[in-house]
């Protein structure tokens, strides 16, 4: 059985990388139809299912696919369809 080790003074967590979302992310809300544009040029349409208050993550249900969590650090744009 493995036991969790308590964090000591020398234990540090790696910094969390944050990226501001593209301005397109501010134009959509939960329930909206959206188009997700990937850095490689692909795009998909779907419905914005949910989002965090700081837009650090959104959940999109792409047409004919499952729900996926997306992050600004992935270089995506998520805008109105």
Question: Can you give a write-up of this model?
Answer:
Strands 4-3-2-1-5 form a 5-stranded antiparallel beta sheet, with no helix packed on it. The termini are far apart. It is 0% helix and 33% strand. The mean pLDDT is 81. The chain is built from no helices and 5 strands.
Which tags fit this structure?
single chain, 81 residues, mainly beta, five-stranded antiparallel beta sheet, 33% strand, globular
For the largest sheet, list the strands in their spatial order.
4-3-2-1-5
Structural class: mainly beta
Radius of gyration: 17 Å
Catalogue the unreliable spans: none
How far is it from the N-terminal to the C-terminal residue, by CA? 51 Å
Sequence of secondary-structure elements = EEEEE
| Amount of beta strand | 25-35%
Arithmetic mean pLDDT: 81
Count the beta strands. Answer: 5
- Helix % is under 10%
Main beta sheet strand tally, sense and closure: 5 strands, antiparallel
What is the general shape? globular
Helix segment tally: 0
Brief write-up:
With 81 residues, the protein is mainly β.
Secondary structure elements and pairings:
Blueprint: E1 33-37, E2 43-51, E3 58-62, E4 67-70, E5 77-80
